[in-house]
């Protein structure tokens, strides 16, 4: 087995030994996992550059990763199931906290239900530190020990002017093999996708400058622009780098630890009770893309061919896959409308879970194509991912034909939600110009358990405890989950961008986008394919364009859907999944992951005075009691549909009763 041993270096009561329901107290184990992967094993052959990694005893490739386990002190009081809460960019939700009330709502639900929770470092270009989980992966070398080199393409945008930047801000950069700028290319654009303006080699350098643009210091992992980088330009660098990390090991990390904890006894910290009978995995955002790639590459089967996870819950991965299994990969960067349009984690086929034929490439493929080891899959998708991550490609092919979902998949739509939140009664305050000041419209805050541990799991926005319960009942008891409520062409809930703009309510000062993320057939050269590889053509050659769609808005501008989130089911204003960049920050492009919120007028007279076509709060609900009644009805419908837990429904009702709405 690839996992050699698991070394526990820390063991402590979790939040002081707090009792979680009938499960009782938990303890938190931390330490290091030691791996040794066989490049000759067919199940590892897909890992790019594994054959060029340094080898130790018996020809194996060794590496390590830090882990965290939250396990019941008495495993007999747990539910006998594992839940991998896979970290996003090294930041785990399983950190120690002083007060049990500060434990994230999703995590608290899992603890009360008796799960053993696991997290392990997989993001291979992080810098190890005591707070985050980053593995120590090997660097590929040539057979004679010399460095592997190759062309790398990076994009940069800035929310404040500056003179220099690391090649990979906050991440472990691939050093320039040659710091002569004449052998590299730096260009800028006024907007994403616009024609490039070359920057002369003597106008920039590999190195750093201070805040005043002085004191140059050469560096193979930074670049500087002598005239300064602007917030109103997008920059692209192509250079020759060296020392690629074997990033595809990111998938073996989770596979092998999951299999070890589930199937092995020797050295297993869970072996003092019955071995786990079920195992699940959860990933959000970038980690949702990770799990799509994990499944596509076949890592849900361990080296012995055993299924690792029975069920997987992805919280908004979009149609993108992570594309970490690429030479010189930076899995933190992702393709969007306003940046990395044809690079980074992208919706390179297959984008569908089921096997289908791509009419543009002719390839027949799917993420789930191994019935013996494929898990049950639930994915919750926000509206932003249709605008940013081409999410219609999960249910529509590139020629605009509907694609069915397989029976082992459910897709649930979080109408009106930006990637970073949705605004309503239980939300933090809005950011007037977005998280980094780049947005044109007010943006919902980072209203997720990772950023706001005391946030209520409010049904569809986070789905959280409700969907964990649904997934567990599906895998463990055979109870079918709710039907998918994903927008589809057949129901008229997916429309073109032109259609969206035509039917969006003409609200003064609130213009819908003129752009959304698109996708062409991309050719990165003969050494790159759907499973990853080496990109030798940068930028890629563009082929035919895929047809993409966005959710249709209703008369309020909120996306149409069955079982909408509370903030959209009983709205206080228009929540949409998009925002726009404001002037000075590449105005007109989408503003990344941010949504927008525009409140309703309080009365008919107020809305008519401004020309707002959307009904006022008074016209919708009558008075405060009417608003509370609407909240009560909507929560009941969500609970009955299994999209909300009863405890969360009560929190919504209490918030409505205590609110100042129509008082």
Explain this structure:
- Helix content is 16%, strand content 21%.
- With 663 residues, it is of the alpha+beta class.
- The protein starts with a strand and ends in a 5-residue tail after the last helix.
- The chain is globular.
- Among the domains are: 3-138 and 247-477, Rossmann fold (3-Layer(aba) Sandwich); 149-242, no CATH class.
- The strands form 9 sheets. Strands 1-2-3-5-4-15-16-19-20 form a 9-stranded mixed β-sheet.
- Helix 10 (624-640) runs antiparallel to helix 11.
- Strand 15, helix 3 and strand 16 (311-315) form a beta-alpha-beta unit.
How do the helices and strands line up, and which of them pair or pack?
Layout: E1 3-13, E2 26-37, E3 61-72, E4 81-85, H1 105-113, E5 116-120, E6 149-156, E7 162-166, E8 185-189, E9 197-198, E10 204-205, E11 207-208, E12 217-218, E13 222-229, E14 234-242, H2 249-263, E15 278-284, H3 286-296, E16 311-315, E17 356-357, E18 364-365, E19 376-382, H4 384-388, E20 409-414, H5 464-477, E21 494-495, H6 497-503, E22 520-523, E23 528-529, E24 532-533, E25 541-545, E26 550-551, H7 566-569, E27 573-576, E28 596-599, H8 604-610, H9 617-621, H10 624-640, H11 646-658
Parallel strand pairs: 4-5, 4-15, 15-16, 16-19, 19-20
Antiparallel strand pairs: 1-2, 2-3, 3-5, 6-14, 7-13, 8-9, 8-14, 10-13, 11-12, 17-18, 21-26, 22-25, 23-24, 27-28
Could you provide a short overview of the structure?
The chain has helices at residues 105-113, 249-263, 286-296, 384-388, 464-477, 497-503, 566-569, 604-610, 617-621, 624-640, 646-658, and strands at residues 3-13, 26-37, 61-72, 81-85, 116-120, 149-156, 162-166, 185-189, 197-198, 204-205, 207-208, 217-218, 222-229, 234-242, 278-284, 311-315, 356-357, 364-365, 376-382, 409-414, 494-495, 520-523, 528-529, 532-533, 541-545, 550-551, 573-576, 596-599. The protein is of the alpha+beta class.
């Amino acid at each position: 087995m690839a996992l050699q041993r698991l070394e526990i270096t820390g063991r402590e009561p979790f939040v002081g030994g707090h009792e979680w329901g009938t499960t009782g107290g938990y303890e938190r184990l931390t330490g290091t996992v030691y791996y040794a992967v066989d490049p000759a094993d067919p199940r590892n052959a897909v890992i790019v550059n594994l054959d060029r990694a340094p080898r130790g005893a018996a020809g194996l490739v060794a590496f390590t990763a830090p882990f965290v386990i939250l396990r019941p002190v008495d495993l007999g009081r747990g539910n006998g199931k594992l839940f991998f809460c896979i970290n996003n960019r090294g930041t785990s939700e399983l950190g120690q906290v002083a007060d049990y009330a500060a434990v994230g709502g999703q995590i608290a639900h899992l603890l009360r239900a008796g799960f053993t929770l696991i997290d392990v470092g997989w993001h291979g270009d992080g810098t190890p530190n005591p707070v985050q989980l980053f593995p120590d992966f090997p660097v590929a070398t040539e057979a004679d020990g010399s460095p592997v080199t190759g062309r790398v393409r990076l994009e940069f945008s800035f929310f404040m002017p500056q003179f220099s930047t690391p090649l990979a801000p906050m991440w472990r950069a691939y050093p320039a093999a040659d710091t002569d700028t004449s052998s590299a290319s730096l260009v800028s654009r006024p907007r994403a996708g616009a024609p490039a303006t070359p920057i002369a080699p003597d106008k920039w350098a590999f190195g750093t400058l201070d805040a005043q643009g002085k004191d140059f210091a050469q560096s193979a992992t930074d670049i500087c622009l002598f005239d300064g980088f602007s917030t109103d330009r997008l920059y692209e660098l192509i250079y020759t780098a060296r020392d690629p990390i074997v990033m595809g090991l990111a998938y073996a990390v989770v596979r092998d630890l999951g299999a070890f904890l589930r199937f092995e006894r020797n050295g297993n910290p869970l072996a003092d009770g019955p071995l786990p009978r079920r195992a699940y995995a959860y990933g959000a955002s970038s980690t949702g893309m990770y799990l799509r790639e994990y499944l596509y590459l076949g890592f849900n089967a361990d080296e012995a061919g055993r299924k690792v996870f029975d069920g997987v819950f992805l919280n908004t991965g979009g149609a993108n896959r992570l594309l970490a299994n690429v030479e010189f990969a930076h899995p933190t960067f992702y393709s969007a409308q306003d940046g990395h349009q044809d690079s980074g984690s992208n919706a390179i086929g297959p984008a569908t879970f089921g096997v289908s034929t791509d009419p543009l490439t002719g390839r027949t493929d799917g993420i789930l194509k191994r019935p013996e080891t494929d898990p049950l899959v639930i994915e919750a998708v926000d509206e932003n991912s249709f605008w940013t991550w081409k999410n219609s490609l999960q249910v529509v092919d590139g020629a605009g034909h509907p694609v069915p979902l397989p029976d082992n998949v459910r897709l649930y739509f979080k109408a009106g939600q930006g990637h970073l939140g949705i605004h309503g009664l239980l939300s933090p305050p809005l950011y007037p110009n977005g998280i980094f000041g780049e947005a044109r419209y007010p943006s919902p805050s980072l209203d997720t358990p990772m950023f706001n541990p005391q946030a209520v799991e409010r049904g569809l926005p986070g789905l959280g405890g409700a969907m964990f319960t649904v997934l567990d009942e599906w895998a463990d008891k055979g109870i079918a989950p709710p039907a998918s409520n994903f927008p589809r062409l057949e129901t008229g809930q997916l429309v073109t961008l032109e259609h969206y703009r035509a039917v969006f309510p003409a609200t003064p000062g609130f213009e819908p986008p003129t752009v959304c993320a698109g996708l062409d057939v991309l050719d990165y050269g003969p050494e790159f394919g759907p499973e990853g590889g080496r990109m030798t053509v940068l930028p890629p050659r563009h082929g035919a364009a895929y047809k993409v769609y966005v959710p249709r808005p209703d008369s309020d501008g909120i996306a149409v859907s069955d079982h909408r989130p509370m903030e959209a089911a009983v709205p206080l204003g228009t929540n949409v999944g998009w925002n726009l960049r404001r002037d000075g920050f590449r105005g007109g492009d989408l503003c990344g992951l941010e949504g927008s919120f525009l409140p309703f007028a309080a009365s008919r007279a107020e809305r008519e005075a401004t020309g707002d076509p959307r009904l006022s709060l008074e016209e919708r609900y009558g008075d405060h009691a009417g608003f509370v009644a609407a909240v009560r009805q909507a929560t009941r419908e969500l609970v009955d549909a299994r999209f909300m837990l009863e405890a969360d429904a009560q929190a919504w009702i209490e918030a409505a009763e205590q609110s100042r709405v129509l008082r």
